[in-house]
Design brief:
Two copies of one chain form a homodimer.
Chain A lengths: L1 H12 L7 H8 L3 H8 L2 H15 L9 H16 L2 H13 L8 H24 L7 H18 L6 H11 L1
GO molecular function (chains A, B): DNA-binding transcription factor activity; transcription cis-regulatory region binding
Organism (chains A, B): Kutzneria kofuensis
Keywords (chains A, B): DNA-binding, Transcription, Transcription regulation
Chain lengths: 171, 171
């Protein structure tokens, strides 16, 4: 499994390479059938690789305040999304999500739960300091949604400090 | 061109149909080469169909106030995104956007400009009434981004009234 993740990362970093399940399996030295069985689709595999990368930096850095922690987290998300690899991952993540309203809410909520878990380290520390903790939906709507949608749209990135201050003002 | 749009819509509405450029061209009775030449990719074609649908309802309904106009616009976006067709279009639109940070900012900004133009009817009326007009980036970040990203993520939809009131409070 680590070999498959590693192979996917290496292919994503090679601008000339096609990132398909057969190509990833070949590079990892495993049978493509076992990759299909575990991840289902190319997008499912890349989404798993992407979230595993996010989890690697979890819990996020402790700056001593909720505002500082959120700004550091949002700034590192912006930096990550600005690289070709981060960008490819976001497209893969979105491409792996259900394409009809009815479909596959369970798979989607599993991915979302993993992303929310990454932020929980920040909120747990804020609660321990006695700070007011914002609702996860507000973090999603006010900070995460503009950062992600601006990348998907190819628009210039928002200022993470403005987004975090907006969240704390409303929270 | 209208025949190609119509054929794409009909195929998208048929759950058993594959929506490819050759299939759309066949149904429209045109040469696939001319479809490739004009739209480039399947995603480019579907994005054009999606935005043309949005433009159809433009300018948005006049309720007599900026708040009412924005709520009506956001509610109709939520309804549209909740249908299988609206959902398929959003995925196609995102799939048509550049997949590397460097790529194709011009094509992306053309799509964005068409979306912004739809909202301008609302802002022009607000300005004529003497109401304070929010910045387009704030409308994008505070209202549009959560609505669209929640659909892409398969999360339950946000309340458009909450988002619009948040925008007006901050604007």
């Amino acid at each position: 499994m680590a070999a498959v993740h590693q192979a996917a990362l290496e292919l994503l970093e090679d601008p000339g390479a096609e990132v398909t399940i057969p190509a990833v399996a070949r590079r990892a030295g495993v049978n493509p059938v076992s990759v299909y069985r575990r991840w289902g689709t190319r997008e499912g595999l890349l989404a798993d690789v992407a979230i595993t990368r996010l989890e690697r930096d979890s819990p996020p850095v402790d700056t001593g305040s909720l505002r500082g922690d959120l700004i550091a987290w949002a700034q590192s998300a912006v930096e990550d999304l600005g690289t070709p690899l981060g960008h490819a991952f976001l497209h893969a993540l979105v491409g792996s999500l259900p394409t009809t309203p009815e479909a596959d809410a369970e798979r989607s909520s599993h991915l979302l739960r993993r992303i929310v878990t990454i932020q929980e380290g920040i909120f747990d520390r804020a609660a321990a300091r006695g700070e007011h903790v914002p609702a996860p939906e507000d973090v999603f709507d006010i900070v995460l949604a503009p950062l992600y949608l601006r990348v998907l749209w190819g628009a210039p990135q928002a200022d993470p400090v403005v987004l975090v201050d907006r969240l704390l003002k409303l929270g």
